[in-house]
Amino acid sequence: MKETPLSNCERRFLLRAIEEKKRLDGRQTYDYRNIRISFGTDYGCCIVELGKTRVLGQVSCELVSPKLNRATEGILFFNLELSQMAAPAFEPGRQSDLLVKLNRLLERCLRNSKCIDTESLCVVAGEKVWQIRVDLHLLNHDGNIIDAASIAAIVALCHFRRPDVSVQGDEVTLYTPEERDPVPLSIHHMPICVSFAFFQQGTYLLVDPNEREERVMDGLLVIAMNKHREICTIQSSGGIMLLKDQVLRCSKIAGVKVAEITELILKALENDQKVRKEGGKFGFAESIANQRITAFKMEKAPIDTSDVEEKAEEIIAEAEPPSEVVSTPVLWTPGTAQIGEGVENSWGDLEDSEKEDDEGGGDEAIILDSIKMDTGVEVSDIGSQEMVFHHVGQAGLELLTSDAPIILSDSEEEEMIILEPDKNPKKIRTQTTSAKQEKAPSKKPVKRRKKKRAAN
Amino acid sequence: MEEEMHTDAKIRAEIGTGCSPRGPGCSLRHFACEQNLLSRPDGSASFLQGDTSVLAGVYGPAEVKVSKEIFNKATLEVILRPKIGLPGVAEKSRERLIRNTCEAVVLGTLHPRTSITVVLQVVSDAGSLLACCLNAACMALVDAGVPMRALFCGVTCALDSDGTLVLDPTSKQEKVSTWLWKGRGLEAKGPESPQWDWLQEARAVLTFALDSVERKLLMSSTKGLYSDSELQQCLAAAQAASQHVFRFYRESLQR
């Protein structure tokens, strides 16, 4: 679906409001929207809501061989997907620019900053390392995807537990989660992206733009920072020209924001860990609010299935027995069998249709019913509904009507068909003089393959 | 909240206990549904069955590409995204099943030359995934206000090797049974030898989609071995279960 265009009056309204330091949702210039983090029952699964923008993150791991030039390091793989439910404009194939930009930014933020210790992911140097895969899905697009995605990624990575592995000499033992508690990843620091939107050629800036503000912005500055005030990645897009002190001011704001967000993340992780340890309920079911009018929960409901057997027997007793259409396979020769009967040819009077035998060679022959027309055989005369698949020796398949005499012959020459596109129809088989019918062309490829196999 | 937590913890421990076809004892897991939770799609719903959770978003009736438009009814499209990895053939086949179910129910002729898109995202998979997807899709279509001739629901049953029926199985109960060789060496000892471990789970897993008007069958997808009487039994059990699911729908929509 195409994106609904932004009307001029809406654009003007937004820009005028920004000039007067007002935002549509009542936030201040440097305010973030509410961040809500909820965890699922599996480790490494979380949903982050930044206002209405929602991102689902899941981390999974697998043992693979390491890259050749990095034999002692684990592999990190990030994948952000813009789901089609996030915005009507996100169709597969339509979002490539934005998708590439977001994925690249996420990779730079998390991989190049070395926030995960990849050396600790090595199990057997040069042979087996852990591949950690982070899948992020954007569920609802209300602006500032990159911030929400980076928070979701780092939260999921912190929440994730990988299976424990022990190496004793040559023996490597992988413990299941039931045998030994899974182990968290070793994370050095938590880089979080903060976005700044610029308007009117850099005069006004807003932190955490929502979707409308993103539509009217001139440019975007993304700074990825951790709570130690180290900049991990910085990216300016949109072609705005910023002054040095503007960038410095933004980085200061980012420092403050990242500190707040990191605190929030740590608190959420701690809460979840506490609930799990105490044996309480955890998972997405818990994060659905009880009192909301749009949410409803029902406890475990027992179902009475005591009369299930009687009902079933009733139904089977009343049902008609299955009709005797089950066809048994008939073996004509070794290598050829027939199951079922075909239907009448529905192609009608077709002339000059030819088929090329692209499996090479005169070994195999294909018969086309249309071609038979020219030899004076009328398909319409064939009233019979029956068809027989007939494999003549090694050479090819042929269709005959049931009342046609079946001649078995191993001769290959007789079944050769000369493929010359200009010439009118191919030679008909000399073996049978009766009319032939053929099944719909969809059967052809199957036949050809069967031939090949039988021939081999 | 505290006492709720306690009773729920108890219930959670008994999740998915099986039952014999005679005795009453099958149960559906804890259900939860939230609607209208996403701001962009026309309708959205998050459906939870125990630990399985699916999020559905519906766009429609909306503009359709000329290549896909049908002159007298709406083009229904279903997209299912797994949580990990790229969507594969299994997702495509599930999309087909869900689409066929939706097409039977949605009144497409009221909106010709439009498209209705249902996007499903697997949030967590702990058994009965197809049934949960169907339920989420139905609630999302209702939330979007798409005209339908009936509601539909999905119910999964698993058949044990001794014929015991389990409704709404967890992923552990759903695994089709297999022998697991945990010994060393290549001796092909039979199942009696202690080195074989019987990973006992289901012999067959059947998923049905039933409509709300007469609880007729809209779609069925099965895996495994079962007899025709077992099929009818599972269907009857699913119909009994669907009553509860529809009651849940009604109560959640009435709020």
TrEMBL record, chain A:
Keyword Glycoprotein carried by entry: no
Ranges where the record places region Disordered: 340-363, 420-456
Comp. bias regions, Acidic residues: 349-362
UniProt cross-references to InterPro entries, sorted A to Z: ExoRNase_PH_dom1, ExoRNase_PH_dom2, ExoRNase_PH_dom2_sf, Exosome_comp_Rrp42_subfam, PNPase/RNase_PH_dom_sf, Ribosomal_Su5_D2-typ_SF, Rrp45
Keyword Membrane annotated: no
Gene Ontology CC terms: cytoplasmic exosome (RNase complex); cytosol; nuclear chromosome; nuclear exosome (RNase complex); nucleolus; nucleoplasm
Predominant location: cytoplasm
A Gene Ontology BP annotation from the UniProt entry: U4 snRNA 3'-end processing
Location in the cell: Cytoplasm; Nucleus, Nucleolus
CDD domains in the cross-refs: RNase_PH_RRP45
Gene Ontology molecular functions: mRNA 3'-UTR AU-rich region binding
Positions with biased composition (Basic residues): 442-456
Ranges of residues in domain Exoribonuclease phosphorolytic: 32-163, 189-254
Keywords: Cytoplasm, Exosome, Nucleus, RNA-binding, rRNA processing
Subunit (UniProt): Component of the RNA exosome core complex (Exo-9), composed of EXOSC1, EXOSC2, EXOSC3, EXOSC4, EXOSC5, EXOSC6, EXOSC7, EXOSC8 and EXOSC9; within the complex interacts with EXOSC3, EXOSC4, EXOSC5 and DIS3. The catalytically inactive RNA exosome core complex (Exo-9) associates with the catalytic subunit EXOSC10/RRP6. Exo-9 may associate with DIS3 to form the nucleolar exosome complex, or DIS3L to form the cytoplasmic exosome complex.
PANTHER family: EXOSOME COMPLEX COMPONENT RRP45 (PTHR11097:SF14), EXOSOME COMPLEX EXONUCLEASE RIBOSOMAL RNA PROCESSING PROTEIN (PTHR11097)
Protein known as: Exosome complex component RRP45
From TrEMBL, chain B:
Keywords: Cytoplasm, DNA-binding, Exosome, Nucleus, Phosphoprotein, rRNA processing
One term of GO molecular function: DNA binding
CDD domains: RNase_PH_RRP46 (cd11372)
Keyword rRNA-binding: no
GO aspect biological process, one term: rRNA processing
UniProt cross-references to InterPro entries, sorted A to Z: ExoRNase_PH_dom1, ExoRNase_PH_dom2, ExoRNase_PH_dom2_sf, PNPase/RNase_PH_dom_sf, Ribosomal_Su5_D2-typ_SF, RNase_PH
Keyword Ribosomal protein attributed: no
Pfam families associated with the record: RNase_PH, RNase_PH_C
Domain Exoribonuclease phosphorolytic residue range list: 28-147, 151-240
Main location: cytoplasm
Subcellular location: Cytoplasm; Nucleus, Nucleolus
Cellular component annotations (GO), alphabetically ordered: cytoplasmic exosome (RNase complex); nuclear exosome (RNase complex); nucleolus
Oligomer status and interactors: Homodimer. Component of the RNA exosome core complex (Exo-9), composed of EXOSC1, EXOSC2, EXOSC3, EXOSC4, EXOSC5, EXOSC6, EXOSC7, EXOSC8 and EXOSC9; within the complex interacts with EXOSC3, EXOSC8, and EXOSC9. The catalytically inactive RNA exosome core complex (Exo-9) associates with the catalytic subunit EXOSC10/RRP6. Exo-9 may associate with DIS3 to form the nucleolar exosome complex, or DIS3L to form the cytoplasmic exosome complex.
Family according to the record: Belongs to the RNase PH family.
PANTHER family: EXOSOME COMPLEX COMPONENT, EXOSOME COMPLEX COMPONENT RRP46
Name of this protein: Exosome complex component RRP46
Gene symbol of the encoding locus: EXOSC5
